[in-house]
Design brief:
Chain lengths: 177, 246
């Protein structure tokens, strides 16, 4: 179903949960994955996003597209996770042990996936630059949509995009040298 | 070498698109059950809140509303007029005015009031500790009255005069206390010195009644009048005047 049609359908409360998930799962999971860099965590966050979204679907007023609305919910969950993860990390540092003996399915997946340097460089970008590139290149959002989603002025979005592009280009140039 | 931006962006988009995932039937079931659980939990929560409200109302009725409104009807929340009414009922003099009030504990107020005596050209300052709650009627511990005569011309010009009062210890009150009237505008701080040389700082409330400032200090339970010295200091901490506490 087209996003505009679906926006109306959601707005009037006629959307079925399965339809919502099937239409947007890939976008939301992808967004969560590139923000968290974790396959399994992206699944959890995507599930949580859809459950939360459907629970508060009566609050959706159609002021943005359904996709932008879901991306915003997803982003909030990622940020919440980052905050809690930071505290876990701080507390648990003395007890962390690296286990490199057993490569997980996720590690294998990443190994194949990261062979393209451009992805490696994307993952090396700071969060705020990585997310604008994702939203523009992968999700094809406009500056205004990104501004609404990230809750920052359009000028900030533009400058972050500019900086993100420059950082990736610099890294690619360094690779060539 | 300068790269074409489109080139890496296209590579990036292509790579991103390759990273895809479809919801598995297990994931769909899990989400459906979470959704159902959340909706159920919402209903349960509403039922629990409603139940808690009913129980609270029931407790409110059978307990005579005590613990519900105690905090908001204590002395902390009493208006100046309510406090004056309590003091006025005690002194049979409704003409008092509050010059300063200070919270003391959860339900207590230390209240300084002024009663003008125009016929005798003097005024009385009175300190009371008022404690009240819903369960008890308000209780007042009076700290007594200090009479302040109209100052002489010389006293006004030189600002040299100290009228003070010692309020003895009283159980369940902030007393003992010393308080007094300060007229010298050059005095920036007052301290009380006991016989062992221990110093107690006082609070000064400027110009509570024209040029009269109020000073007061809560003292140790063992404090006694007659053995306390009042030291008045200027902004630099230099001693200006010394008096003994009356």
């Amino acid at each position: 179903m087209h996003d505009t049609d679906l926006t109306y359908t959601v707005q009037v409360g006629r959307i079925h949960f399965d339809d919502l998930v099937k239409t947007y799962w890939n976008d939301i999971w992808n967004y969560a994955f590139f923000l968290t860099k974790k396959h399994d965590l992206a699944e959890d966050i995507a599930q949580d996003t859809f459950v939360s979204a459907f629970k508060s679907i009566d609050r959706f007023r159609g002021q943005s597209s359904v996709k932008t609305w879901l991306l915003r919910i997803c982003r909030n969950r990622v940020i919440n996770h980052r905050k809690s993860a930071f505290f876990r990390k701080v507390i648990m540092v003395p007890f962390i042990r690296r286990s490199e003996t057993f490569a997980s399915a996720e590690a294998e997946f990443l190994d194949v996936f990261m062979r393209d340097k451009v992805i490696t460089h994307l993952f090396e970008l700071p969060f705020k630059y990585r997310e604008v590139l994702l939203l523009e290149i992968r999700n094809e959002l406009s500056i205004e949509e990104m501004s609404t989603l990230l809750d920052v002025p359009a000028g900030t979005v533009k400058s972050r995009l500019h900086r993100a592009r420059r950082l990736i280009q610099q890294k690619l140039e360094e690779d060539d040298v | 070498m300068t790269r074409d931006r489109k080139d890496w962006e296209l590579r990036l988009k292509s790579a991103m698109d390759k990273v895809s995932s479809d919801p598995t039937p297990i994931q769909m079931d899990r989400m459906r059950s979470r959704l159902a659980a959340r909706q159920g939990a919402s209903k349960d929560r509403i039922a629990m809140v409603a139940g808690a409200v009913i129980v609270a109302l029931f407790v409110l009725v059978i307990s005579g509303r005590q613990w519900f409104i105690q905090d908001t009807t204590g002395a902390r929340a009493m208006s100046d007029q309510q406090l004056l009414d309590i003091v006025g009922a005690q002194t049979q003099d409704p003409a008092g005015e509050i010059i300063y009030r200070q919270q003391w504990g959860e339900n207590g107020v230390v209240l300084f009031t002024r009663f003008m005596r125009s016929e005798s050209k003097e005024m009385d300052w009175k300190v009371d500790y008022i404690k009240t709650s819903v369960t008890d009627a308000s209780s007042v511990v009076s700290g007594g009255i200090m009479t302040i005569p109209l100052p002489t011309k010389g006293e006004v010009e030189q600002g040299v005069r100290m009228i003070s009062k010692f309020v003895p210890y009283h159980e369940e009150s902030p007393f003992p206390m010393a308080y007094g009237d300060l007229m010298n505008p050059h005095v920036a701080q007052i301290r009380l010195i006991d016989q062992n040389g221990n110093s107690t700082a006082t609070n000064i409330v400027k110009n509570v009644s024209g040029g009269h400032s109020l000073w007061f200090a809560y003292l140790h339970q063992s404090s006694e009048a007659g053995i306390l010295t009042i030291e008045c200091l200027d902004r630099e901490g230099q001693l200006i005047e010394t008096y003994s506490l009356e």
